[in-house]
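So, is this right?
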Amino acid sequence: MKKKIIFIIAVVLLVIPIFIIKNYRKESSKNKDNIVEEVWYGEKKVAYLREVEGNYILEIDDVVNKKKGNIEGIGGYLHNINWSPDGNYLTVDGGIEATSTTYIISVKDLELFDKIFTTGNTVWSPDSKKLLIGVENKEENIDLAIYYLWSQRAEPLLEAKEGYDYYPEYWKDDNVGCAKVSGENKESFQIKYKPSLEEKIMSIAMNKKEIDSKELKTIISKLPEIDLENLEKIYGEGSDIKILNWLSKQSIKDKEDIESILKISLNLYDEQHTIISNLMKDLYLKDKITFIKALAKVPKAMEETAYAFKTFELYETGNEDMIKDLDMFSSSNVLTEEEKKLAVEFLNIYDLCGI
């Protein structure tokens, strides 16, 4: 008898949510007049276009975040609602010309995030951080481009020449589908999308993903190769600071990793250099012997590092004792004779530095 009651309760608990979802869909649509387009994301988010006296209004009902309302700042003839894979954004096109005004909407904030001019389909990337779009270039041909939400900028992926255009078709995993169109001739093909080093690292840093020590080691070894200009193009101003702040929170202890940090420091300035210097100071205090062995591999960084440590008054405040450290380095069984000489020279440079 007890098993039968438990079974009935389980069935009821399963049926009720299904009924609520179906009823929610009915009520959501039933209470809206003049709907010309309605697109759902899952079962609890819906966007619809409603025509009012010739003008189109975009409305969003987001049960997950308990938000509902009209999106201001857009209007006219709207069409083609397109949800991002994660449901946090959607696009809607405006106008009747070949080149549309594509509005990007933040669903969470119920507001216009950005607007761009596109030709052809607008295709979301699998990670919802990018859009594959067609963009008219200076020669009035259509380039295939990628729009990055982080920086609100578009960069060409395939540049069209006179006589043909590129149009987006799909983006699945790392496969980008597009069409090359010349007059009435159309050739569909796909290419592999290879994210740049900057994009790979930034996606980890921005998403605050936990990574294992092996992956961290790989990333740190590649950091000296980062193109900060390219990083800013993709992720916008301040992205370099975000990466360095993320890096400073990681568990770094191997000599090779410290070598990479020292190499990075040679190309940084102002706030960038302050963050990396603070990280180097922490690494030095954590394991001075390993730090000196790493510094011996990057001797060019010695003077700058000594000066940076002096600005922190590393030996003037706290419990650090330079004489004890000189003795430790000189008597070390781990350091080579060359590394011992470098350690002494490093501390001498520190001592001579002005603040």
About this structure: Residues 2-195 form a domain with the Methylamine Dehydrogenase; Chain H fold (CATH 2.130.10.120). Confidence is low (pLDDT under 50) at residues 10-21.
